[in-house]
Design a protein that fits this description.
This protein is α+β, with helices and mostly antiparallel strands. Helix content is 30%, strand content 29%. It is built from nine helices and 19 strands. Strands 1-2-3-6-5 form a five-stranded mixed beta sheet, covered by helices on one side. Strands 8-9-11-10 form a four-stranded mixed beta sheet, covered by helices on one side. Strand 15 and strand 16 form a beta hairpin. The longest helix has 18 residues, at 265-282. One of its GO terms (molecular function) is RNA endonuclease activity. One of its GO terms (cellular component) is nucleolus. Residues 8-334 form the RNA 3'-terminal phosphate cyclase domain. Belongs to the RNA 3'-terminal cyclase family. Type 2 subfamily.
Length: 364
């Protein structure tokens, strides 16, 4: 919905992705009617915090927020990068802030060294563990690998937080074209179970329960118990299990479950395990949590046709494809991946890359 040169949207959904697309494409974006019908209208504290973080990562970005907080205008600058520290509010985990930063970081002027403090694992966003073990390897598909790292210094469970993670990302001139169409067969399952400020035995109980299901399918299972003590364990008690399955062609599927009051560790483990099996059954080469990241990097790829096999798009992915059309004018061709198998729901996503070159880097 472009009016003049400003792209206009309404509503608070897909807020992060629209800001990222604006900064990468260099087109200003205006978002209005943000929770205008709500009892508590306007931007939430975590959204304001994200705007502050994006303003610090970039140079020359102008953000205007209306008096009621129900409308914002972002005029993008260049992505500067460099060392930064940001305190995240306790309403969302650090994953909420890391996802948009990961999309921007490779195209910065200087390599980003970002320290985020707050909650490291919650139910709403990807945990620090999954970002480290699953999201970052997806960047390696596009040739972004040397010096790419996420360090979990301290864990922080909700509601008190107290966690700390450090994200390091190199800069690239251009991302490679993706051609990822072979899902392969699942060859190994890995997992990290952690328990902070509770009985350390909870961690082992989660591992035992997860194994009771996973051992039926595959022998190569390694679930690691990650114990943090004292200062490093944050301010609140909690435990969680993150699982990932890897295939012969390096496809990664992931799932996680976090502790809830009154729910036994075994039930948390079963929830994570079933979620992983459900994700694997959907098929494709990229799991549903990472569709948007891969689609964005395909659009920014060199001027060639990129192809990727994925499962059915989630509603968020469908909206993201529409937003990409507004920002970059790129359309995707989506066709059945295997027309010979009518029962297969896998789709082949293909697009022509825009040949996006990191101009910020040349100024350095």
């Amino acid at each position: 919905m472009a009016a003049g040169s400003v792209i206009q949207y309404s509503g608070h959904k897909c807020f992060r992705h629209r800001l990222v697309l604006s900064i990468l494409s260099g087109k200003p974006v205006k978002i209005h009617e943000i929770r205008s019908e709500d009892k508590n209208p306007g931007l939430r504290d975590f959204e304001v915090s994200l705007l502050r973080l994006l303003e610090r990562i970039t140079n020359g970005t102008v953000i205007e927020i209306s008096v009621t907080g129900t409308a914002i205008l972002l005029k993008p600058g260049i992505i500067a990068g460099g060392p930064l520290t940001h305190d995240c509010p306790l309403s969302r985990s650090v994953g909420y802030f890391l996802e948009p930063v990961i999309m921007l970081a490779p195209f910065a002027k200087r390599p980003i060294q970002l320290t985020l403090r707050g909650i490291t694992t919650d139910d709403n966003d990807l945990s620090a563990d999954l970002i480290r073990t699953v999201t970052l390897p997806h960047l390696q598909l596009f040739g972004i690998s040397d010096g790419l790292e996420l360090r979990i210094k301290k864990r922080g469970a909700p509601p008190g937080g107290g966690g700390e993670v450090q994200f390091l990302c190199p800069i690239v001139k251009q991302v490679k074209t993706l051609n990822f169409v072979e899902p392969g067969k699942i060859k190994r399952i890995r997992g990290i179970s952690h328990a902070v400020r509770v009985n350390p035995q909870f961690s082992n109980r989660m591992i035992e329960a997860a194994r009771s299901i996973l051992n039926r399918y595959i022998p190569d299972i390694y679930l690691h118990s990650d114990v943090y003590k004292g200062e490093e364990s944050g301010k609140s008690p909690g435990y969680a299990l993150s699982l990932l399955a890897e295939s012969t062609t390096s496809v990664l599927f992931c799932s996680e479950a976090t502790s809830k009051p009154g729910v036994a560790p075994e039930d948390i483990a079963l929830q994570a395990t079933r979620a992983l099996l459900s994700e694997i059954s959907k098929g494709g080469c990229v799991d549903q949590k990472h569709q948007s990241l891969v689609i964005l990097l395909m659009v920014l790829g060199s001027e060639d046709v990129g192809r990727c096999r994925m499962s059915q798009p989630t509603p968020r992915t469908i909206q993201f494809l529409r937003d990409i059309r507004d920002s970059f004018g790129t359309y995707f061709k989506i066709s059945p991946a295997d027309p010979t198998k009518p029962d297969s729901s896998d789709l082949l996503y293909s697009c022509y890359g825009t040949g996006y070159v990191n101009a910020n880097r040349d100024l350095a």
